[in-house]
Design goal:
With about 240 residues, this protein is of the alpha+beta class. The protein has 2 domains: about 140 residues, Jelly Rolls (Sandwich), CATH 2.60.120; about 80 residues, Orthogonal Bundle (Arc Repressor Mutant, subunit A). About 45% of the residues lie in helices and about 25% in strands. Helix 2 packs antiparallel against helix 4, helix 6 packs across helix 7 and helix 6 packs across helix 9. The radius of gyration is 19 Å and the shape is globular. The model has no long low-confidence stretch (mean pLDDT about 90).
Length: about 240
């Protein structure tokens, strides 16, 4: 578990701004759950019974299409809430699966428990709505990117997003500090493994990236920004 779960929760998007008494109740009612690498907190379609905040590790939210293709919707880092649908519309079930990318720990609350806490502190309800709104905005942005942007821009934007989320300065540049495979990037950008591998290899040849097994270091962030924003063509 995180060294200071209270501080992690206070900085989380779900519990920011709540009162001290409510935070005490939140901590007292939270259920700690740890999942090993590649394990699942829940599966797509399961009854939406709990809301989570990640304390330690990395978690990817992904959907499986009717054709059987996996699509990564979001990568979560500590402090982020997920499964808010359990609070607002539990009968709908979880729309995604939550899979640990490394050993991870989260606090979970049964939906009725969190709903009762929200009645005493409206900030929880407002925060939940904002979290879900943020997810919807991300989905809309990704749909627009898929519909209108070249694959190189989508890959560059995805890498920059991940770097902003979980980047760490290292000697070579900015390490995306999550286990990240080429297949993960392909699923996040709506393209093929072949295209991602070809693109990353070319960028590595140009000195923009350093790519290893489940490891990406951005060596020239400004070059990646130029691609993401299509600045090289002057547009």
């Amino acid at each position: 578990m995180a060294l200071d779960p209270r501080e992690t929760l206070r900085q989380s998007d779900l519990f920011t701004g709540i009162g001290t008494d409510t935070m005490d109740a939140v901590l007292a009612s939270g259920i700690s759950r740890s999942v090993e690498e590649d394990g699942y907190f829940f599966f797509q379609g399961d009854p939406a019974t709990h809301v989570y905040v990640l304390l330690v590790g990395r978690v990817k939210l992904h959907q499986v299409t009717p054709a059987g293709q996996q699509v990564i919707m979001r990568v979560l880092t500590p402090g982020e809430a997920f499964a808010g649908i359990a609070l607002l519309k539990p009968k709908a079930g979880y729309p995604v699966s939550a899979q640990a990318m490394e050993e991870s720990t989260a606090l979970a609350w049964e939906a009725p428990t969190l709903r009762a806490l929200a009645q005493g502190d409206p900030a929880i309800s407002l925060n939940t709505a904002q979290v879900i709104s943020g997810y919807m905005t991300d989905v809309q942005d990704r749909y627009r990117e898929l519909a209108t942007e070249k694959v190189e821009r989508r890959i560059a934007r995805t890498l920059l997003r991940l770097a902003s989320q979980s980047g760490r300065k290292v000697a070579e540049g900015v390490l995306i500090d999550i286990p990240l495979t080429r297949q993960d990037i392909a699923q996040m950008t709506g393209t093929t493994l072949f295209t991602v591998s070809r693109t990353l290899s070319e960028w590595e040849r140009q000195g923009m990236l350093s790519v290893g097994r489940e490891r990406v270091v951005i060596r020239e962030p400004h070059a990646l920004v130029r691609i993401a924003e299509d600045l090289a063509t002057g547009r």
